[in-house]
Design a protein that fits this description.
Elements (H helix, E strand, L loop, with lengths): L1 E6 L2 E8 L2 E7 L15 E10 L4 E7 L8 E2 L21 E3 L1 E5 L2 E5 L1 H11 L5 E5 L1
Antiparallel strand pairs: 1-2, 2-3, 3-7, 4-5, 4-10, 5-6, 8-9
């Protein structure tokens, strides 16, 4: 996953896998602080586990210490709440079909169908996600 757009409205990137391309959305970089920051660059193993919070199976990223519970789930908005933006993330990652705008804020669009397509494509098997 290659990040290309950084700002208070979110961190956006692109994830390419054979035959598919998704846009990614994360919180802005805030020194890896829990609940307000995206993850540092690196390689993370993702495993398919049940999320009590979402009440369904999602991919969970391992190796995110000191943070925990970082998942890939649908979200459209990933702005810095302390600067007045909306966010549906607390440090997790989302995927979408494209980047656009929702009520004047940069957003990841068609996230839920994109996350479902990604999960199906990956067959719920573990994988490595490189964030650069």
């Amino acid at each position: 996953m290659a990040r290309f757009d950084f700002g208070d409205q979110g961190t956006f990137g692109r994830l390419r896998i054979p035959g598919l391309e998704f846009y990614s959305g994360e919180l802005p970089w805030r020194d890896n602080a829990p609940n307000i920051s995206c993850l540092p660059k690196g390689v993370y193993v993702a495993v398919w586990t049940y999320s009590p919070r979402f009440k369904r199976y999602l991919y969970l990223l391992l190796g995110t210490t000191p943070r925990a519970g970082i998942r890939a789930h649908p979200a459209n908005l990933m702005g810095d709440k302390s600067k007045g933006y909306y966010s549906q993330l607390n440090g997790c990652i989302s995927f979408g079909e494209r980047i656009g705008w929702i009520e004047g804020q940069k957003a990841l669009l068609l996230s839920a169908p994109s996350v479902r397509l990604f999960e199906t494509y990956m067959q719920h098997k573990p994988f490595e996600l490189e964030i650069r």
